[in-house]
């Protein structure tokens, strides 16, 4: 037994499960005091919800723990806090208690408001489920250690005052009744039904689908299996009566939303005189997807630029499923540039994730904004940072399609624009590269004017990013671009013009219809249900489509690498032409590409060329090669500096080997085949320093 004064010496337990229960914890009994004889344990405060969910999933006594009472204290309010003093105090009680209504069945003419012999009296709407259960526990967020939670389990068994089981399979009186199961439907089922309603599935279809599922697994096994038509109708009514406008004042409406959805907010900074608005949103489902697909995978940062309907910046964090579809796993809304505030909200997000899984770590973090502080990202996620050029590529291509009518000129201008980004490979400055471009295409005055106004002020920043960061491949750009198009069509295009000032409408749309769209698509993929609706909710991206084009349908002349052709999969008599094949600035003459998008034909040719090494190294690979050659050809004379150079080259070789996996999966532009071997040969020529 331990004294309450010694609780900080107890080990902090963090079971390696998504949800865990009392059975996964080693308990210590308290000696003396008000909690004398109770079981106690320490867990990370971020895992309290996981413990509550795990306890509710008890196989013998399924339950639902409600908050019976809650108290909070502000930091600094106590000068000399007790060792078990709390910032937050929450008492959880099994929903089958503490009142007992089993023996109080009013007859006709009798007063139905009689209070039970024990407990606090009548709870409206809960009479039918009160069975006197005494199971309850207390959670204290420690005042001196806010990152820890003290669990005090006052009664671990689901028993009544007689000491006998009062619900679940151990209670003979409960067998064959709903008291065998949890008293309410689960959060997972509620999420499922609400998402189906948001995407337009009818009430009758939802009920029929649920009944078929119950029959498929052999009848009811949990309270979820008793879902009724009335339950679905109530949720449908809740959606119909919900509104984004919780207050006439937009700022107050945002604050109310944050209070009501607190568990879905990982960071909130109110918009005040000196502080900008920062709102980080991540639902439980998004957190699950980020842990599932982001671990040992890639996380991408998507910035919504240039929307006339957005007063505030909207940023999305994306993870990628096995089909390389981009799934939004968090949204950040800021009243200023997200790059200025990344140091504020990103640590909160990482803490939330690591609170669920301390081993979680991505392989790469992809950014599409040159203003982001990459050092903050490296420090937070402990991974390498890649640059994605989809914003630049898409902007330039759409500008060419708008201001230049000659297809051949478009092709050449697009190629030369790419050379500006990689001008450091031949030692020229950005100003020189831009000047050369403008001299060559001086007759294209409309595009030149567009380029000067929109891109010239920030071209130096993009060039510096290309020089210092590895560049992501076109496959990844295509997936991010696909998400961008869905965001525009399903969120931004639906916002009315007069919603410019309202952040609450954007929040509401993201967390209801848009969130449900991605949830439902994943549900179709994982279960195989609603296949007839797959085309309507399809997330298929050009990367995934390119993987299904056979190599035999790619036609390329190794003697003339100016263009390639890809046979149409719908009509074999049609072939599409890809110009600048294998380049980051390749484009196609298909209907999808000529409106500024990355198409499956461009991706397929890029994969084909890379696998056969039949085109010159991509521009990003040439930058790496040139940097390496400069390092190897200009060896310092000082032995100490030379030793440092050797270690630097060795580390560079190790980094390139680690990047090979990303390159093989299309997440990174590949290096030329001779780069790694050339580096190894030169390392062997270095003199040995003793």
UniProtKB/TrEMBL annotation:
Top-level division of the source organism's lineage: Eukaryota
Pfam families per UniProt: SWIM
Positions of the SWIM-type domain: 576-610
Metal-binding keyword on record: yes
InterPro entries, sorted: Znf_SWIM (IPR007527)
UniProt keyword list: Metal-binding, Zinc, Zinc-finger
PANTHER family documented for this protein: SWIM-TYPE DOMAIN-CONTAINING PROTEIN (PTHR33977:SF4), ZINC ION BINDING PROTEIN (PTHR33977)
Protein name per UniProt: SWIM-type domain-containing protein
Native species: Rehmannia glutinosa
């Amino acid at each position: 037994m331990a004294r309450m004064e010694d609780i900080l010496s107890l080990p902090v337990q963090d079971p390696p499960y998504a949800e865990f229960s009392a059975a996964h914890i080693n308990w210590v009994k308290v000696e003396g005091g008000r909690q004398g004889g109770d079981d106690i344990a320490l867990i990370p405060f971020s895992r309290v919800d996981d413990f509550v969910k795990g306890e509710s999933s008890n196989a013998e006594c399924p339950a639902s723990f409600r908050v019976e009472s809650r108290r909070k204290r502000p930091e600094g309010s106590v000068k000399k806090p007790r060792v078990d003093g709390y910032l937050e105090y929450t008492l959880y009680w099994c929903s089958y208690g503490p009142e007992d209504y089993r023996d109080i069945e009013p007859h006709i003419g009798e007063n139905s408001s009689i209070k039970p012999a024990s407990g606090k009296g009548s709870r409206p709407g809960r009479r039918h489920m009160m069975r006197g259960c005494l199971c309850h526990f207390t959670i204290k967020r420690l005042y001196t250690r806010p990152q820890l939670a003290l669990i005090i389990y006052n009664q671990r068994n689901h028993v009544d005052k007689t000491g006998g089981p009062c619900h679940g399979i151990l209670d003979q009186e409960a067998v064959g009744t709903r008291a065998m199961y949890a008293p309410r439907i689960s959060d997972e089922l509620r999420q499922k039904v609400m998402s189906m309603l948001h995407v337009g599935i009818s009430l009758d279809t939802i009920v029929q689908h649920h009944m078929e599922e119950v029959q498929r697994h052999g009848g009811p096994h949990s309270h979820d299996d008793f879902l009724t038509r009335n339950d679905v109708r109530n949720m449908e009514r809740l959606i119909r009566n919900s509104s984004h406008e919780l207050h006439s004042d937009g700022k107050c409406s945002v604050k109310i939303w944050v209070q009501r959805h607190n568990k879905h907010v990982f960071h909130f900074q109110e918009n005040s005189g000196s502080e900008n608005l920062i709102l980080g949103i991540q639902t439980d489902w998004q957190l699950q997807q980020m842990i599932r697909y982001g671990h040992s995978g890639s996380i991408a940062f998507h910035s919504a630029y240039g929307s006339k309907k957005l007063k505030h910046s909207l940023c999305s964090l994306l993870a990628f499923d096995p089909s390389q579809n981009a799934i939004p796993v968090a949204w950040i809304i800021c009243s200023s540039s997200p790059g200025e505030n990344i140091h504020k909200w990103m640590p909160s997000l990482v803490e939330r994730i690591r609170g669920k899984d301390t081993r979680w770590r991505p392989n790469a973090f992809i950014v599409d904004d040159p203003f982001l502080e990459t050092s903050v990202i490296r420090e937070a996620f402990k991974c390498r940072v890649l640059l994605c050029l989809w914003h630049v590529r898409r902007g330039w291509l759409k500008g060419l399609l708008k201001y230049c009518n000659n297809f051949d000129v478009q092709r050449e201008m697009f190629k030369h624009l790419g050379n500006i980004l990689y001008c450091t490979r031949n030692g020229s400055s950005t100003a020189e590269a831009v000047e050369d471009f403008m001299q060559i295409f001086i007759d294209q005055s409309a595009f030149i004017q567009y380029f000067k106004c929109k891109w010239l002020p920030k071209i130096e920043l993009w060039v510096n990013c290309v020089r210092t960061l590895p560049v992501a491949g076109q496959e990844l750009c295509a997936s991010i671009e696909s998400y961008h198009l869905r965001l525009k069509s399903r969120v931004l295009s639906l916002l009315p013009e007069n919603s410019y000032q309202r952040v609450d409408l954007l929040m509401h749309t993201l967390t209801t219809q848009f969130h449900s769209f991605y949830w439902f698509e994943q549900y179709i993929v994982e279960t195989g249900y609603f296949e007839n609706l797959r085309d309507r909710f399809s997330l298929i991206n050009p990367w995934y489509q390119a993987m299904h084009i056979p190599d035999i349908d790619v036609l390329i002349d190794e003697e003339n690498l100016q263009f390639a052709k890809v046979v149409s999969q719908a009509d074999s008599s049609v072939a599409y032409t890809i110009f600048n094949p294998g380049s980051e600035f390749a484009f196609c003459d298909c209907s999808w590409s000529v409106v500024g998008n990355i198409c499956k034909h461009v991706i397929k040719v890029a994969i084909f060329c890379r696998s056969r090494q039949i085109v010159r190294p991509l521009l990003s690979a040439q930058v790496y090669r040139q940097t390496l050659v400069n390092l190897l050809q200009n060896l310092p004379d000082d032995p100490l500096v030379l030793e440092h150079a050797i270690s630097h080259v060795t580390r560079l070789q190790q980094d390139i080997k680690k990047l090979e996996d990303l390159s093989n999966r299309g997440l990174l532009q590949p290096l030329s085949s001779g780069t790694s071997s050339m580096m190894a040969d030169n390392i062997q020529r270095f003199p040995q320093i003793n």
